[in-house]
Amino acid sequence: MTTHFITAEIDLQQTPTELQACIEAELQKRGEPLRWAITDVDVEQQKVSVEAIVTVAQEASSEA
């Protein structure tokens, strides 16, 4: 298992609950989130920047 620092841009949502669900869904695509934070909000572009730490399972190496 390895940890990775990632950043993502997410479209701003109508409610905080919808925004949280969108952030968590995007992070799940990249691994298992350990922690995340919104680090910037661009009102003009309607985007939020998110920084996160995720864990990713390592694939078993195939040694013959």
List keywords for this structure.
single chain; 64 residues; alpha+beta; three-stranded antiparallel sheet; 1 helix
Overall description:
By secondary structure, the chain is an alpha+beta fold. The protein has one domain (2-56). It is 20% helix and 48% strand. The protein has one helix and three strands, in the order βαββ. It has a three-stranded antiparallel beta sheet, covered by helices on one side. It starts with a strand and ends in an 8-residue tail after the last strand. The model has no long low-confidence stretch (mean pLDDT 91).
Give a short overview.
With 64 residues, the chain is an alpha+beta fold.
Summarize the SSE layout with pairings:
Blueprint: E1 2-11, H1 16-28, E2 32-42, E3 47-56
Antiparallel strand pairs: 1-3, 2-3
Strand order of the largest sheet: 1-3-2
Derived from helix and strand composition plus strand pairing, the structural class reads alpha+beta
Helix count, per DSSP? 1
Query: What level of helicity do the residues show?
Result: 10-25%
Tell me the number of structural domains: 1
Question: Total strand count, please?
Answer: 3
Flag low-confidence runs. none
Q: Give the biggest sheet.
A: 3 strands, antiparallel
How far is it from the N-terminal to the C-terminal residue, by CA? 22 Å
Instruction: Bin the strand percentage.
Output: over 45%
**Rg calculated over all Cα atoms:** 14 Å
Mean pLDDT: 91
Shape: elongated
- Give me the strand/helix succession: EHEE
